[in-house]
Automatic annotation (TrEMBL):
Origin species: Streptomyces hygroscopicus
Keyword Hydrolase: yes
Protein name: Esterase
Gene3D superfamilies reported in the protein's UniProt record: alpha/beta hydrolase
InterPro entries, alphabetized: AB_hydrolase_fold, Esterase-like, Siderophore_Hydrolase_D
Pfam family, one: Esterase
Keyword Hydrolase recorded: yes
UniProt keyword annotations, A-Z: Hydrolase
SUPFAM superfamilies in alphabetical order: alpha/beta-Hydrolases (SSF53474)
Family: Belongs to the esterase D family.
Amino acid sequence: MWTETTPPLAAMLPGTRYFELESEAVGAQFGVWVTTPPRYESETERRYPAIYQPDGNLTAPQTAPAMQMVRDDPINPVEPFIQVSVGYTGEDTTRLLAVRARDLLPPGEPLLPTTNPESLDLLVQAGYLDADAAKLYWHNLQNPAADKFLSFLVDELHPLISGEFRVDDTSTGLWGFSYGGLFATYAALRRTPFSRIGAGSPGIVPQSKVFELYDSEIKDEADYSGRMLHMTVCETEVTAVSPYQAYVGRGATDFITQAGKNPLSGFTFSSKIIPAESHATGLAASWFSFLRHCYSTSSPEATIMCQ
C-alpha cells in the first residue's frame, strides 16, 4: 500500500521556514521562504548576511536545497548566508507571469513593439495563462511598480527578517533572474541596503529605464563604493535565434558595455556568460555564479573584491 500525503516543508527544503505577509506598500500578500545555513543552530553567536530572491515559488525549490552543500564545497566554497525567497500565495501562484510583472518592472519601463495583447493571446493558447490572467498581465506590463516592491523588501520585510534571524547587515544581498534580474539591476541603482547584487539574464530592453537611471547616477557623480553588481547572460540568449535575443541578450550586453566603458564611482561590476544554458535552464547556474563572485571564501582576493 502507498499513501498520497502532503510532506512537511523540511522534506524538500531542509532548514527552511515559511511565512506569509501582507504588504502595505504593494497592497498584496507574499509568501516568504527563509533558509538558514548548516550549523545555524549551533553557531549561536554568529551572524549571517541575508540574500533576497524574488520569484520565490521558482527560486526556493531550485536553489535552497544546495544550501547544505555550498558552504563546505571544497572547490567553490561560499560564505554561509540566510536565503530569503519571496514569492506569491493563493490565486497568484496560478498566474505568476501576470503578477510578477507588477513587482519586477521599473515604473515606466517600455515594452518591445512586439509585446501587445495579441502576443499575450499566444500564452493563453499555449496554456500558460487563462484569458483573465492575460488581461492582468497586460495591465501590469503597462503599470509596473518595482519601486513599491523594493519598498516592501527594504522597509517591511527586511526588518522582520533581522528581528527573527541573526542577520549581518554589512553584506546584504539581492539576486534575481529574468524579470527578477531586471529588478535587481534597477535596485542596484537605487539607495538601498543591498550591497552585493546579482542580475541573471535580466529582461533589459534597449530603451529600459535602467539606462536612464545609470546615466543619471553618472551625471550626479554618485558614490557607489562598497556596492557590487554581477550580471550573467546565458550563451544561447545571445547566440541562438529566438525572442530572447531581443528581450535579454541585446539589452544585457548593452548594459555590460555601458558599465565597462563608463563605470560608476566605486562600483564593482562583473559579468559572465553562462555556457550552453538557455533562458529556461540557466536560473540555477546564474545563482551559483553570483554566489561565487560575491560570497566566495576560496581566496582572499575574491572576498576583498566583494567587500
